């Protein structure tokens, strides 16, 4: 088993802005296995496979808009697959205000752990403070 295969997974479900999330989470690659997905279904398959293989998943980060599911059903399915993983919704600045109204109650009731503005710059320490 390689060193990489023992690292906990961070899943980035990024259908519209994969380059932004990949760049921001690049700093965690030394200690985590970063996986990029583009749909809720692809993320669910990855999480189910990781659980079946006994591979720990530390964090699931998703954009606030998905091509194949509303966010709440996706989060519920992912939580069912890997209940110990933290779940974060990172909204693109074009959608942040509109999506905040829709997602606020889910944050308040524990459906996910944080609602963050997707970073715009190279280093967004507020964002990373919330992640860690």
Any guess at the CATH architecture? Answer: 3-Layer(aba) Sandwich
CATH class: Alpha Beta
How far do the termini sit from each other? 27 Å
Evaluate the radius of gyration.
14 Å
Query: What is the number of domains?
Result: 1
Mean pLDDT: 93
Structure description:
The chain is an alpha/beta fold and 132 residues long. The chain has a single domain (3-131), classed as Response regulator (Rossmann fold, 3-Layer(aba) Sandwich), CATH 3.40.50. Helices cover 42% and strands 20% of the residues. It has a 5-stranded parallel beta sheet with strand order 2-1-3-4-5, with helices on both faces. Strand 1, helix 2 and strand 2 (33-37) form a beta-alpha-beta unit. Helix 3 runs parallel beside helix 4 (71-81). The longest helix has 13 residues, at 40-52. The radius of gyration is 14 Å and the shape is globular. The mean pLDDT is 93.
């Amino acid at each position: 088993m390689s060193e990489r295969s023992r690292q906990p997974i961070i899943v980035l479900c990024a259908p519209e802005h994969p380059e932004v999330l990949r760049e921001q989470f690049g700093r965690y690659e030394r200690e985590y296995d970063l996986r990029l997905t583009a749909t809720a279904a692809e993320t669910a398959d990855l999480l189910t496979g990781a659980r079946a293989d006994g591979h720990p998943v530390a964090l699931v980060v998703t954009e606030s808009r998905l091509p194949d599911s509303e966010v709440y059903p996706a989060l519920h399915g992912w939580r069912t697959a890997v209940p110990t993983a933290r779940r974060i919704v990172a909204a693109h600045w074009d959608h942040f205000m509109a999506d905040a109204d829709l997602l606020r109650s889910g944050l308040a009731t524990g459906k996910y752990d944080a609602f963050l503005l997707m970073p715009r710059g190279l280093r967004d320490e507020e964002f990373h403070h919330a992640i860690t």
